[in-house]
Design goal:
The chain has helices at residues 2-11, 25-31, 47-59, 73-77, 100-106, 119-126, 133-137, 141-154; strands at residues 15-19, 39-44, 66-70, 84-89, 107-115, 158-164, 167-173. It is an alpha/beta fold. It has one domain (2-173): Rossmann fold (3-Layer(aba) Sandwich), CATH 3.40.50. It has a seven-stranded mixed beta sheet, sandwiched between helices. The longest helix is centred in the C-terminal third of the chain and has 14 residues, at 141-154.
Length: 174
């Protein structure tokens, strides 16, 4: 997250969405780089995570710039008024997420999209999985991950770059 936060600083975001925020670790990293008056919205489908993340944000002094919403990411994105400056997507795993088009549609031109979980792509390309991904993502995890990467690379509205170590992707909205 330190790398993501450093890149986010370059665009000086005022509005950030953190998809699949869990207990808010990434949300707080993002909140630490925005100016007062900015808004970072963490979204997670587990209401217990949202409750705990909210308490943590208060404890660390970020309640003035952090908001959490509980629900399925695709559903919550329908309630967000865009555009936003940045989206950090940690809500997908091994396949094209249902929220892809809504997510990209919310990012302003020149805005930043960061996506983690690309260790699956690295493992698919090298043929050396670090884990039994089939137990998490199905027997076709390598194919679905590669298909999603190819779809992102072919989109005319994004310029996407992948890093192998750490395994993360960055995209700028055209």
């Amino acid at each position: 997250m330190q790398l993501v936060a450093s890149l986010a600083r370059l665009i000086a975001p005022m509005s950030i969405l953190d998809l699949g925020c869990g207990l808010g670790y990434s949300t707080l990293w993002l909140a630490s780089i925005v100016e007062p008056g900015s808004r970072v919205v963490g979204i997670d489908d587990d209401p217990d995570h949202i409750s705990e993340a909210t308490a943590i944000a208060v404890e660390f002094g970020y309640a003035d710039r952090v908001e959490y919403r509980s629900g399925r990411v695709a559903d919550v994105l329908e309630t967000i008024e865009g555009p936003v400056d940045m989206i950090h997507d940690d809500a997908w795993f091994a396949a094209r997420p249902a929220h892809l088009d809504a997510m990209v549609g919310l990012i302003r031109p020149g805005g930043l999209l960061t996506m983690v979980n690309w260790f699956l792509l690295v493992d698919a390309i090298t043929g050396s999985p670090r884990n039994d991904w089939a137990s998490f993502a199905g027997d076709d995890w390598a194919e679905t991950t590669t298909e999603y990467a190819n779809e992102l690379a072919s989109r005319s509205d994004l310029d996407v770059t992948w890093l192998e170590n750490p395994p993360i992707a960055f995209a700028i909205r055209r």
